[in-house]
Amino acid sequence: MKKAAAETLNAIAVFQGLALEERKEIADLVFLKTYERHEQIVAQNDNSTDVYFVISGKVRAKVFSARGKEVDYQDLGPGDMFGELSAIDKQRRSAHVYALSESTIASMPEEAFWSAVMSYPSVNRQTLLRLTGLVRMLMDRIFEFSAFRVRHRVHAELLRMADEVPGTGQGEVVVDDAPSQQEFASRVATHREAVNREFKNLEAIGVFENPTGRYVIKDVAELRRMVEEGRGH
After folding, report:
1. Are 215 and 168 spatial neighbours (Cβ–Cβ below 8 Å)?
2. 6 in a structural domain
3. Phi/psi of residue 4, nearest 5 degrees
4. Do 33 and 115 have their domain in common?
5. Do residue 86 and residue 117 come from a single domain?
6. Could you tell me the end-to-end alpha-carbon distance of the chain, in angstroms, rounded to an integer?
7. 59 pairs with which residues across the strands?
8. Tally of structural domains, the chain
9. 226 shares a domain with 187
10. Whether residue 163 is found in the same domain as residue 210
11. Using CA atoms, how far apart are residues 166 and 128, in angstroms rounded to an integer?
């Protein structure tokens, strides 16, 4: 592993509010490592406490039940952070994280992360915003699982993935390294056949296409309308 440069930290959302000299101080405590496609970065239930930041590439978080059932949770791209929960509460890792493509990941020891959070108001604020966003996403999913039919859960998850693509507007969005239909089904608590059926329905009305390894959401505005319809708005 090699130390990160101050310029590298500028690409990380939580550090973007820092001055150059402040980033230089933090950079001495951040280390870079490149992971190959499908290589594990963090293991579920591991007791490590480092915080990680995606510099390039894309990673996926997933959870395994005691019986080995695999549940996809979230994809993260450049600028995103993960592992902060264990750094904060010292509990075991809540998810398994692996590289979807060759990815450069920065790691930061728990003590250095806490020091940055306590020393720099902008880092503190961005960390709180990240945690707030996580809570809101989980609240949305709880509502969707409780109140949405399967088809609307499919729509909501596709919209969530579209909104995570930088520069998303109301037109067409391409999600690369998309989960398989089986993996997508695990995200919305259903089976692959139901996902396949709804994907075909969306394709028939021109909202969605599913070429190999990608999701093409052709009309984000219409998909958003469909999600709001599912909410009863």
Report:
1. no
2. yes
3. -80, 155
4. yes
5. yes
6. 50
7. 76, 99
8. 2
9. yes
10. yes
11. 21
Q: What is the extent of the structural domain holding 49?
A: 2-139
Give 134's contacts (C-beta < 8 A, 6+ positions apart). Answer: none
Residue 46's SS3 state is coil
**Per-residue pLDDT tens digits for 1-38:** 777 888 888 889 999 999 999 999 999 899 999 999 99
pLDDT tens, residue by residue, 169-218: 667 899 988 888 988 998 898 999 999 999 999 999 999 999 888 999 99
Q: How many CB atoms lie within 10 A of CB 117?
A: 20
User: Would the pTM count as exceeding 0.85?
Assistant: no
Greatest Cα pair distance, the chain, in angstroms, is 54
Which residue, 89, 113, 139, sits at the end of a domain?
139
Beta strand segments in the chain, E: 2-3, 31-35, 40-42, 51-56, 59-64, 70-76, 81-82, 96-99, 103-108, 173-176, 208-209, 214-217
Q: Final residue of a domain: which of 139, 167, 194? A: 139
* Helix 150-163 × helix 220-231 angle, to 10°: 140
Q: What is the mean pLDDT of residues 71-99?
A: 91
Verify that 42 and 92 share a domain, yes or no: yes
| pLDDT computed for residue 31 by the predictor | 93
Residues 135 and 172 in one domain: no
Kindly report the CATH number assigned to the domain that includes residue 79. Answer: 2.60.120.10
Tokens of 166: 């930088």
Same structural domain, 107 and 79: yes
pLDDT value for 168: 63
- The tens digit of pLDDT for each residue in 89-103 reads 999 998 999 999 999
